Amino acid sequence: MTEPPSPLRMLLSRHTKRREFITLLGGAAAAWPFATWAQQASRVARIGYLDFASPSTSASYIGAFREGLRYLGYVEGENFQIEFRFAEDDNDSLPGLAIELIRLNVDVIVTYATGVPAERATSTIPIVMATYSDAVATGIVASLANPGGNVTGSTFFNPELMAKRLELLKEIAPSMARAGVLLFRRSAINRAMLEAMERTAKVLGVELQPIEIDRPTDLESAFSVLANQQVGGLVVGDHVFFRINARPINVLAEKHRLPSIGRLELATTGGLMAYGVDFSEQFRRAAVFVDKILKGTKPRDIPVEQANKFITIANLKTAKALGLDVPPCRVTSRSHPCSRKSFSAWCNASACVECGRFMVSPSTVQTMINFSSTLSSNGRLR
């Protein structure tokens, strides 16, 4: 059986600076076998958790992960504990934080939005991706069925997702001839996303204006560029940076009267539309991967799961302010804190027409999921 390429070779192939990857891998020298915890049932499992964002930003996702562990019979403080490391939106601090967890000899590391170098910080300690943008295209795993190495978990096809967002935005804003694309700088998936979007844009007759940023202070200048380019809409990427800055993005989009579409938090905080993955569900599933690893299964033998639930939200208040019509596919009525009891829903989100506040219940999500997208036989969006 041919061994998969080493993490070192994969990093080299992506032009990582020699000094950076040597420092990154230095903490992994003390290798130890996978899943020895399974042979020591009496000890407390130590789970490392590495996150680009802050504790407050990721609180709901961490809660979903803990919920998944509780469902499987784990009790925090009794048979597991979590060692948290947060980059606090500082991408450059991730490698060092990864090394900290490695030196703690945790049993498994759960990651969120950490990028290729951090995912490859060790070749021995098992890593579970709570969610990752197209792990195959970025080289994190060899394939979904046979990930190889020490990484497994959940992924989603970000290039096709972004192309679908462009398609939906064009449907709501048919006069849009040029679309801005807001991406996180240095993200490994940016090129693949733009290639997929270019194919869709050609069919739609739309020109793309991509802009990469990695700091909140970049937002003002980015929107100035978009305004100068006379874009008619904005597609926002999935990096957690855009979740953290959803409100400032929406304020600027409103200022420039730009219809926008992005991850779910964009629409629920005032943006026009959202189309994306239920990340909370993927974090619950991360507990299943951790459980298998702690019971002795090697990550390379656990197939990577792909997202198959996609939620669409339209903010009717924002659409009204922009003078856009949202084609309703379902209409509901229910009680609401503002007591006006006037609602419309598009695909899976109920929003008060008067105040724009969303009422998204778990049952609503389950019954309306996948309404506007289907999956091909290989699991990719079509």
Binned, the helix content reads 25-40%
Overall SS class:
alpha/beta
Tell me the major beta sheet. 6 strands, parallel
Q: Order of helices and strands, N to C? A: HHEHEHEHEEHEHEHEHHEHEHEEHEEEH
Strand order of the largest sheet: 2-1-3-4-5-11
Number of strands: 15
Poorly predicted spans: 1-39, 330-382
Please work out how many helical segments DSSP would assign.
Answer: 14
CATH class of the largest domain reads Alpha Beta
Give the overall pLDDT as a whole number. 79
Q: Terminal Cα separation, in Å?
A: 35 Å
Describe the structure.
By secondary structure, the protein is of the alpha/beta class. The chain contains 14 helices and 15 strands. A 6-stranded parallel beta sheet has the order 2-1-3-4-5-11. The protein has a 6-stranded mixed beta sheet with strand order 7-6-8-9-10-12, sandwiched between helices. β9 (260-262), α11 and β10 (273-277) form a beta-alpha-beta unit. The longest helix is centred in the last third of the chain and has 16 residues, at 279-294. Residues 1-39 and 330-382 have low confidence and may be disordered.
Précis, in short:
With 382 residues, the chain is α/β, with parallel strands linked by helices.
Q: Any key phrases for this structure?
A:
disordered C terminus; 382 residues; disordered N terminus; 19% strand; Rossmann fold; single chain; 14 helices
Describe the protein's topology:
Layout (H helix, E strand, L loop, with lengths): L6 H7 L4 H9 L18 E7 L7 H13 L8 E7 L7 H10 L4 E5 L2 H5 L7 E5 L19 E5 L2 H15 L5 E7 L5 H15 L2 E7 L4 H11 L4 E4 L3 H5 L1 H10 L4 E3 L1 H5 L4 E5 L1 H16 L10 E2 L3 E5 L1 H7 L20 E4 L2 E4 L5 E2 L2 H7 L14
Parallel strand pairs: 1-2, 1-3, 3-4, 4-5, 5-11, 6-7, 6-8, 8-9, 9-10
Antiparallel strand pairs: 10-12, 13-14, 14-15
Helix pairs in contact: 3-12, 6-7
